[in-house]
Amino acid sequence: MRTETLKAMGDKYKVSFTPEEISRFSLLEVFGVPIANLKQYLDLRPDERKGFPTAGIPADTTAANELGDWIYLSRQAERGLHNRDLDIAIKGDRKQEYPVINEIISILGHQKKFKFDLITDLRAAPKK
Questions:
Q1: Of 59, 55, 42, nearest in space to 99 by CA
Q2: Alpha carbons 38 and 22: distance in angstroms, whole number
Q3: Overall pTM surpassing 0.85 (yes/no)
């Protein structure tokens, strides 16, 4: 599903990926870079990626909504491969501002995706 989604995003944003880049992308657990920087990110070794400047995936609903496209195209790929809708999880921590999470929820709502998981960090038990 990841490779199909990357190919569809590449087509949409006019970015071509080599078979090696597609293979590296399929092994990523997470990424947070605009599609314009994804090739550079994939060219790095895994230990170098931690230092790569990440501005996040653009999610402006009035201009470039790459995040919405990633979600939409991932859902399309999942339907095509497994004939079911993609399970979505939003992961945030205590440092994450509510407006960012709300924007992601709004993007999902525009796609009529109202069922998703919200994952947060657990706080440590208070010390006695």
A1: 59
A2: 11
A3: no
